[in-house]
Structure formats: C-alpha cells, structure tokens
Amino acid sequence: MGAAKQTMKTKINKNMRVLIGFAVLTVGFIYLLTSNSKPYIISSTNAIVNLQNEEESSISGEADLFSGVAVERDSSSYETVENKIRAAFPEDPDTAVAIAKAESNLEDWRIGDKHLAWDDGRNGMSCGIFQIRVFPKRPDCEKLLDEDFNIDYARELYESSGWSPWSTFKSGRYKKFLG
Fold it and tell me: Cα-flanking dihedrals φ and ψ of residue 132, to 5°?
C-alpha cells in the first residue's frame, strides 16, 4: 500500500510540473504574439522560428520552444540576401528571390520539414534560405544554414534540375512573391 501511494504521489507531481510548464509557455506565447516587436525563438537545435509569420511560411513540423530567447532581425539584412540571390541567378533573379521568399521569407536560419527527418534527425529536414532538403551525400543542415553556402548550393541544384526541386515552384506558390 505504501509503494502504491508513493507512485500516485510521483505521478501527481509529474503532472503538475507538466501543467505549470505548459502554463508558462502559453503566457509567453500570448506575450510574444501580442507585442509590437518581431519575436523569434532560438531553439535548442539552433534554429530560429518566426512566431508571427509561421502560417505564411513553407515550413512544416514543430518548433522546439523550450530554450526560447527573443531576438530582432535587421530589415537591411533581407535586402542583402536578396541581392546575393539576384547575383547568383542572373538569368532569372525574380523567380529565384520569389522562391526563396516562399520557402523561408529570406531567413537563413529556417529549418522545415522536421516531421520528415530520419536517421536520428540528420536527414530529411529542409534547411536555410532555399529550404534545401538534407539527404545522404548532400551537405548537412549546419552547412545549409550558412546563407552564402545555401545560395551557392541552390544554384548547383538549379543548374542540374531547374526549379523543379522546390515545391513552392511546382505548386506555383512562389508567384505571389513576384515583383
């Protein structure tokens, strides 16, 4: 009887910790979503998730929000990224920028498709500005999160396959980001 009582007490304590943690996260979300700043969360996997524009993003999967730190992003960095993309795709710069905007909103830290990850999370997810899928014999996500590397690798994919590797191109979703 004593062991059963202790087990019940342990379960209640564990459930209370979960409920308190959920309440803290809920309050944090409400604050971030109602503040005037552009909140971002840095996750324990070093990915950052834009909490205000998630529904506009092509990112799938769940964000790890347990180690959140709010940060601001300078809007001039978006212009710099756009210029780099235009330089890398001189024959079709508008389409290249539109695809990158549809894929990641020009945010190099984006990690999507986490629900497709396998091999202990090393393969399957999509990373960086062009949301390039990580597969065996391709660069890992850490490399793809480097903006210059991601743009260069996107160029390589484009040279071998055109725009077909990008679902936002195939679906036509990129068109809303043109001109």
Answer: -80, 130
β partners of residue 49: 41
Q: What is the CATH number of domain 76-177?
A: 1.10.530.10
The structural domains of the chain, with segments of one domain joined by +, span 2-56, 76-177
CA distances from 37 to 71, 73, 74, 112, 115 (A): 9, 10, 12, 23, 29
Q: Is 69 left (phi over 0), alpha (psi -120 to 50) or beta?
A: beta
CB-count burial class (<10 Å; 0-12, 13-18, 19+) for 127: buried
Per-residue pLDDT for the chain (179 aa), expressed as one digit of tens each?
566 666 656 666 666 666 666 555 555 555 545 544 434 433 333 334 443 333 333 333 333 333 333 334 455 666 799 999 999 999 999 999 999 999 999 999 999 998 888 887 778 999 999 999 999 999 999 999 999 999 999 999 999 999 999 999 999 999 999 97
C-beta atoms surrounding 5 within 10 Å: 9
For residue 49, the SS3 value is strand
- For residue 123, what are the β-bridge partners? 118
List the structure tokens of 133: 């899928």
